[in-house]
Amino acid sequence: MGNSYYFRKIHSLLGVIPVGFFLIEHLLTNYEATKGPGAFVDQINWLNGLPLVLFLEIFGIWIPLLYHAVYGLYVAYQARNNVSQYGYFRNQMFMLQRVTGVITFLFVAWHFFETRLQVAFGNVAHEELGRTMHDIATNPVMFTIYVIGTLSAAFHFCNGMWSFLVSWGITIGPRAQRFSSIIWMALFVVMAVMFIMSLTAFTDTQFQLPVEAHTGH
Known about the structure:
Blueprint: H1 2-16, H2 19-31, H3 37-48, H4 53-78, H5 89-114, H6 116-120, H7 129-137, H8 140-167, H9 174-201, H10 212-215
Helix pairs in contact: 1-4, 1-8, 2-9, 4-5, 5-8, 8-9
């Protein structure tokens, strides 16, 4: 029981730092696409120009994300959802947290394969990720999958933040928790809109142009 407590605490903390930060960074990076291909390429180049970027990715993103995802699947497997019996709001949110966690895990794994792993294999350059996202976004099936995946990730993060604040003793009492629900669900709406705007922006035919057309090199 003691080990389970600490494993859950680590799982909860990693969902905020660094996994939550990575989700927000990913959202802001892709939102640059709404400003045009040039802005998106500049943001990608800036990120990949950070010192020790590979080290940061492995130990600051992928290992914490893997732990959070795998242990989260274990928690989801063990969870006893009784929505049909009780139907309380928080019970519904509990169930949705588990469902969106599984969807997000599958989506992130697929997105990682289509983008970052292709860069690692040398099939796609960092500067060509805009064109890759254009091919994805202009496919109706993939666009739908990405909408579902990004909305699941945004909900899982925002609802998870509500749980994090409760479990770490930050929001104590019904009033604080109700206020927290409003704040985080409002943020979910903002993030959902930004993700969809980003995906829509990638459908622009400008993302088909060569990288040089956007960078001026």
